[in-house]
Amino acid sequence: MPIYKTLLAVFTMIFFVSCLNSEQKKQDQERKEQALKIWFEQPTQKWNEGLPIGNGSLGAMLYGTPSKEIICLNEETIWTGEKLYNRDKKAGPEVLKKIQQLIFDRKFVEAETYLTENLLTERFPTGTMTNQMLANFFVERTGFDSITNFRRELDLNKALQTTYFEKDGITFKRESFSSYPDKAMLIKYSADQNKSINLSAYIKRTDNTQIQLSKNSIHFSEHVGDGLGVKFQSTIHFEVKGGVSEVKDGKIVISDADELIVRIVAASDYHGKDPKQLTEANLEKLLNKDYENLYQTHIHDYRSLFKRLDFKISEEDGEDLPTDKRLQQVKQGSVDNYLTQLHYQYGRYLLISSSRPGTMPANLQGIWVNGFKPPWNADYHININIQMNYWMAEMTNLAECHEPFLEFIGKLREMGRITARETYGSRGFVAHHTSDAWYMTAAFGRARYGMWPMGAAWSCQHLFTHYEYTKDKKYLAEHAYPIMKEAAEFFVDFMITDPKTGYLVTSPSVSPENDFITNDGEVATVSMGSTMDRSIILELYRNCIKSAEILGVDETFREILKSQITQIQPLQIGSDGRLMEWMEEFEERDPGHRHISHLYALHPSNQISKENTPELFEAAKKTIEHRLANGGGHTGWSRAWIINFWARLLKPEKAHENIIALQQKSTLPNLLDVHPPFQIDGNFGLVSGITEMLMQSHDGKINLLPALPAAWPKGSITGLRSRGGFELDLYWDKGSLTTAVIKATMDGSFRLQVNGKLSQEITLKAGETYNWKD
């Protein structure tokens, strides 16, 4: 054989073997990743047992049966209402002074009555200013009531929902995903026998929805909220392979197809652009790409975020038992580490799917809304709920997903300045317990929740947290610090000296949604200087001071803040050893209340710690024990917060006990959190709590495995992020850390804490790695 033919044969064999090896590696990797599937052996007709997909703005909850699939479509900007500049009552300084004097005179009930009439705006009826679903998309098949080998699953490694079943010896398959790069949702119907796809499709929304059908498209549009909300346009396009499509009885009817690919696009005029032009332009781009191209683009984008972090506390592959049956066993008393591992990564999946750069932040339900009057309008509760949504973002290596909330805080300023000026006669900006797509900041509703001007201030914690993880001075100078400064300016003006104690106080003040018993035996809500108010203001002021020092600006303003800090009452311990919730030692009306607001200083702040404030640390323990003994933690998000508290208190078994309680009492079969009803913050709070059990980073220290429970004797977590810009891989066995790899993404220093022992300062240059071994 000529030499060139021999060489050609050799090179061909090498290439062939290389391809086989590459394919083998890919298959091996995919086999490893099969451990992250939420799956079921039966369909469901319940929305809150469906499987969610999303790309940050366009989402869907997929449920129903093979006979009648229901795909509840969501687009994040489908909101009723409008930006209202006149929601604030023009109370002003005189009204405020009267309220404050009543509080100084300890006439708390009278103060509440007066401020309700003169300061608070009436609450709009549910559904007036609300997020709505886009539409219900129905897919029907005739003769599919009886099927076999049904399975529906959500693959967290691929952000891909797939449903399989058999009918008359034919295997049918539907796969669905929502692509962030292509701003579209894709659904593919297929079967293992040609000419088997026969179905009809249609949408339902309201009587005002304009629907146009062609043989390959459903176009629908509406001006929502009786013409006061957004205008939207959506198109559902059907690409039929090997069959025919026609319009019949208000439906798209597909017959004898080999395959069907559905492309869904939607847009509104929320951002000031024509939704019809947006959807048409996007659909045109989509039609120039085949399904496989769209799928691979989606996978590459999604995995670039999701695969940054891996968490493993179980060797199981997850295929021996469906997710709902696993959860049922936990509800009956078992412990399932695989389920916890899955639950954790599900939270990261949900954040990626509901919050991406350029989108709105995740609301009370992420982006998954059923109907037109969702609970609490699926709005932005900024008295813990939206903050909890984002506690996990930086530490679980999803900083980009934090961006929508960081942008949202800045956008509150326009309305917040009006509220500060007209309601309080103050500079700066302020927001209360709830906002929406229109950036509402007004105080409204009942005093126990509405009279709380701390929403913007608490949110500002996230601005500085992002800086702590990134050390981005440009971001600090141009975005974070100007917002924090304005929030602080409000309190510089708003706080007043209590003539009895001499302390600067917020007045009026509440501890969110809780009441107290006065010395006269009356039930009251409004007082002054609640513990949460003081904790939030102290943190805001200190973050402003640090920021101004880093940037070398506003020396005079820094001194004002430093002076006011010395005039704020320190946190107080009551006669029973618990942290006081109010400035005075009132008895709480509901000792098991879901809000545990007076522990803000423990978490999410770090003003309370074992090393720096040991007495407050012990008081915090007693506070949680008392809450739980009286029925606390009865909502999903509250239980998730408790996990974070116990992690900060270095109590691993208590933290783990509450993970199990969350799964037993506040988790739906599809692992979504239930308040009740469904509310997504508990999913995100769980992720934060578990992460806090494995790593905490504050004050230049990185504490490894600070609250590792006995139930997780062996495991690993790789790709964690800490303050200071460090990335961590942790491995443990027999309940002890065996290896830690810490990589610097930028120049920085830290002290490492392992088993309570603190190292000397370790300094790394960007790209350098520090290895710790037992």
Automatic annotation (TrEMBL):
Q: GO molecular function terms here?
A: alpha-L-fucosidase activity
Q: Note the Pfam families from the entry.
A: Glyco_hyd_65N_2, Glyco_hydro_95_C, Glyco_hydro_95_cat
- Output this protein's name: Uncharacterized protein
Q: Which InterPro entries match?
A: 6-hairpin_glycosidase_sf, 6hp_glycosidase-like_sf, AFCA-like_C, Alpha-L-fucosidase, GH95_cat, GH95_N_dom
Domain of life of the organism encoding this protein = Bacteria
Q: Which residues form the Glycosyl hydrolase family 95 catalytic domain?
A: 291-694
Ranges for domain Alpha fucosidase A-like C-terminal = 696-759
**Per the UniProt entry, what are the Gene Ontology biological process annotations, in alphabetical order?**
carbohydrate metabolic process
Chain ranges of the Glycosyl hydrolase family 95 N-terminal domain: 38-272
Listed PROSITE patterns: PROKAR_LIPOPROTEIN (PS51257)
